[in-house]
Amino acid sequence: MGEHDRPAVFFVVQPTVAHYREPLLRHLRDSTAIDVDFHGRFANSETSAADRIHPASDDVLSEVTPIRFSTLGRLWWEHGQVRAVWSGSHDVYVLAGRIYTVSAWIALLAGKLRGRTVLLWGHGWKRAESGLKLRLRRAFYSLASGLLVYGDRAKELGISYGVPAEKIEVVYNSIYDAERIGSVQVSSVQVMGSDASTRREDAGTASAAPAQASASLSPGPSAERFTIIYCSRLTARHRLDLLADALAEYPADGPRPFVLVVGEGAERPRLERKFAESGVDAEFTGACYDDAALRELYGRADVAASIGGAGLNVIQALGFGVPVVAESDHRDSSPEIEAVVEGETGRYFQAGDAASLRAVLRELIDAPAQVARLGRRGVETIGRRYSAQRHASAMEQAILRLRRRRRHR
């Protein structure tokens, strides 16, 4: 191919072809800069049925070649990957950057031997590492032509561990198209006594569609009480118990906040009992993938709680104009936590500390103007960096730059 041709890209969707990958995949499919050949797992079948991630729609799945994989404990083998890299029918190969995928190691070695441009896409370093795991990850990444990582911290850590800066491209992450990003924050707690139009203005509405959605908000306890939304899978890893513990000891000098729990998972029955036994008023809605329903739910919320490891849940909340209260320095948090900036787009509480969480929530209840400001800044941050359009563009440009770097070495 010539230098200015549209390169063919063998692209492994990371981690699965899930519902939240649809906007990104649609933009990459329509790219005029690269010609993308999608491959991926259709479901995270290594988890229990209750904890599985909802897949993309059938029309998106129809454009993805399914990957068969075998497992042995934490080790995976993704069938066909090594053969694809060795055969060299594509110009660039973007593989999932998981160090326990044995086939990825062999594919990277095949790429080295055959002179292919093989990139790894993933979190990169989520936290500082040392010892054997650090040596293993550095060896893995050294075989690749470049890295596509989700956050700035991953690049900083990579450079500190000796990876050339020009080999690491930060592409961030996404969940929604830019048109879906905009505040739906209209809770009466924030602006008591204002009419609906004033509440939307004060909440920082960023687009017409979210403002229209707010007109149909369902009534409920959250119309009169400070409301916390939690939207994520209900697994033991996320430790939602902490929120119940924080609110169980809430002072009697005011009404306890109301909690909306949006999600499904194996832990749901136990968590429903936990909140009830703690005397916390909570509504468990189940999983929700409908855009209008999600907007309505977030429109009832004042803040979003991220308990345990944070991920795309913070991007979703901030994109809807709902500030995030998150655990500080949680080891399981993904790079998306970088979108939560203390005092700018959200607040942090001490990891695992129910009293610290309770104190932060009380401060926010007493500061409605701050909550509104955090919501506005959140929308600005997501629109600037985390939309599907920005994500796709960043990936296109990174792939082209890393390909040129590989060809000119």
UniProtKB/TrEMBL annotation:
Name of protein: Glycosyltransferase family 4 protein
Q: Name one Pfam family in it.
A: Glycos_transf_1
* Composition bias, Low complexity: 204-219
Q: Source species, please?
A: Candidatus Nesterenkonia stercoripullorum
What are this entry's molecular-function GO terms? glycosyltransferase activity
UniProt keyword Nuclease present: no
Cross-referenced InterPro entries: Glyco_trans_1
Q: Does the keyword Acetylation apply?
A: no
* Domain Glycosyl transferase family residues, every copy: 223-378
Taxonomically, which superkingdom? Bacteria
Q: From the UniProt entry, list the residue stretches annotated as the region Disordered.
A: 197-219
